[in-house]
């Protein structure tokens, strides 16, 4: 039974956001050997990180320079059962038209052979997916206006028609497009260098002092709320659409308040398409180990890593593990803790 809930935040609403929710990138040298400086006593030399950039956990023989594949996955009841989500390193949930949400699931430590249902990109993905030369979006396609912006941002993508996509015969269109990442990965040109860490990974004493939080409701719109419950030391979605045994268990959930603007076009059903602005800064609530910590998130640019700071200005690290990020609409969205 779910307990009493406390709403911790709701920003100022704007008319455009409300309308969206209701409608559903040889010199010559001397022959003598050059002199080199010796490192100062006690100095340390930098080494390549030995952790996964989207998990913060040890590589254990894995290759952190292999491509990152970000699959756009439907997150409505008609998507059930979602496939492959349980093997994602990190997931971002974003608002789309009609008050529904869509997932951007990051895969690098594992490439499932069946992920989906695969859906289309949105302009919001420009802030979610780094244009770092290592990351590729896996998608069914997108509106021409969105494709132009994704191309301008320098983010590569692969879409239906490329190797690795198939249509399931036991699902209805458009919820039957699936992706085999083991087939897609060899075809992408991104990769070759380890991406920067998506979050600042590390343990923090701040969580032990946080507010108890065993139940969390993240409201995106009147039509969609993602509800989390603590199961052992991880958070699970109690209204998930994932296949049995294939759900995403989050070690940490980040609820980040973001501004939402009009993307400037309508979907095929005539609904305005929203765009969540995932750069700049905003308020945040970080859930880990049954505790909630209030913070501020910041991103210096659309492709920059996410950084968190506490009320006293100290950096807040995210414990290594699997993380789910909620992009909560400012004003119309809310985060309730129970």
TrEMBL record:
Signal peptide: 1-28
Keywords from the named record: Signal
Every DUF3048 domain range: 64-188, 217-325
Protein name: DUF3048 domain-containing protein
Lineage, uppermost ranks: Bacteria, Bacillati, Actinomycetota, Actinomycetes, Propionibacteriales
